[in-house]
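Possible race condition, two jobs.
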Amino acid sequence: MGSKLFKSIALLVVASLLLSACGVSAPGGTSQGDDTIKLQLAEPVRFNEPVTVTITVQVSKEIPEFEIYLVTYDSSIIVEGDSKWEVHAKAHQPITVSSRIRFTEEGKFEIQAMTHDRRLGGYVLLNFVKLMSHPSMLPRQL
C-alpha cells in the first residue's frame, strides 16, 4: 500500500513539474507579458484550395518600425498573398493582417507567425499552427 501511494504521489509531482514548465498560451495564440500574437486558418482547409490565414497582434508599447511575418519552410505550401507587413504598432491596439495560402501536397505542415522590432533587432513574439493532412482536406468531388 505504501509503495503504491508513494508512486502515485511521485507521478503527481512529476506531472505538475512538467506542466508548470510549459509556456502559458491562450487557445490559438501566444502571450508574452501583455503582448499577444494569434494565428488562425479559416475553415474548411482543403488541398489545392486557397485558405485565409489571419494574424492578430497586440503589443503593450508603441513600436514604430514593427514587422509581422507569415512563415512556412515547406515548399508544398504556396503563399498567394503578402507574407510580410510593416506597421506602426500602437500600445494595446490590435493589428490584424491576412493572406492566403494553398496546400499542394499531403503531409504535416507548420505555419508560423512572428513579429520583429527593427529598432531592437530581435523577434518579439512567435506563434505557429501545426496541421496534419486529413481525408477532409482532399479536393471535393463534383
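Job #2 (started ~2 s after job #1):
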Amino acid sequence: MKQIIIRDYDDKEIKAKIDAEIDEVQKRSKVRTISAYDVIEACKHLDQRFEIVPKKYRDGMAFDVDECIQPFPGAYKGIPESTHFCLTYKNGTWRLTDVYRGRCGKNCSRFYATAMPEAAQNAIVSSYMYFR
C-alpha cells in the first residue's frame, strides 16, 4: 500500500483515498469494519493525547490501531477479525501506512505503540516530573 499523507482532517480528497484503501481490504467483510472517519478521529485523538510532546520529537511515532477491540467468550466459534490500520507521524503529519484485517485484540487499548522515539519518551517523562 502506498502511504497516504493526512495533512488536513477535512479534505474530502484525502478521505476518498483512505476509503478506497479501506474498501479494498474490507471488500468481503460485514462486521467490525472501519471508515475514513475512524482514521481521522484516531489522528485527532493522538494529536490531543501527545500535545505535551513537541512536534519535532514526534517524528517516527507509529501506532497500530484496532477500533473494534472487544473480548469474546470462550464458546465463540471461529476467529474474530477486525480491520486494523497503522499510523506513522513524519514531518509534521500523520500518515496511513497500512490497512489490514487481523485478529481482534484482547487487551484493553485500541492504540498500540509500535515505535516511540527516545526524544518523545523523554518529553513525556519530563512533562510529569513537575506538577502544577
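Residues 4-127 form one domain.
Logs attached separately.
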